[in-house]
């Protein structure tokens, strides 16, 4: 179950990043506050996963999901560049996450 909590925590990392971007630097206060609530939920689920997963592994997977997902969200939702090097680096993050899960 710890891996499920960790996966959901990672997805919430992506969600709060998108909400924070959409808040426009807190010009839309409701979205900014919501981003903090989602971030808190992400931290809480990370904490639950730490009950049975090694801290280094859990943290690396959590931040990896957030980093790769955030970069992908930037490309898809915010028209950020999607060049070959960027996509290759995102792939390396994903490979690292899978490697940590398998190790």
SSE layout and pairing:
Elements: H1 2-22, H2 29-49, H3 55-78, H4 84-102
Helix pairs in contact: 1-2, 1-3, 3-4
Structural overview:
Helices cover 83% and strands 0% of the residues. The chain is mainly α and 103 residues long. The chain has one domain. The mean pLDDT is 95.
Q: If you average the pLDDT, what whole number results? A: 95
Structural class: mainly alpha
Please state the overall shape, judged from the principal axes of the Cα atoms.
Answer: flat
Low-confidence sequence ranges? none
Count of runs of 4 or more consecutive helical residues? 4
By DSSP, the count of extended strands is 0
Order of helices and strands: HHHH
Q: Could you name the key traits of this structure?
A:
flat, 103 residues, 83% helix, mainly alpha
Short description:
This protein has 103 residues and is mostly helical. The chain has helices spanning 2-22, 29-49, 55-78, 84-102. The chain has one domain (2-102).
């Amino acid at each position: 179950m710890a891996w499920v909590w960790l996966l959901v925590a990672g997805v919430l990392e992506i969600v709060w990043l998108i909400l924070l971007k959409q808040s426009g630097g807190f010009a839309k206060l409701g979205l900014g506050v919501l981003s903090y609530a989602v971030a808190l939920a992400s931290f809480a689920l990370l904490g639950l996963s730490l009950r049975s997963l090694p801290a280094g592994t859990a943290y690396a997977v959590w931040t990896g999901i957030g980093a790769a997902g955030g970069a992908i969200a930037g490309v898809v939702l915010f028209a950020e560049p999607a060049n070959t090097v960027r996509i290759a680096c995102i792939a390396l993050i994903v490979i690292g996450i899978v490697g940590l899960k398998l190790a």
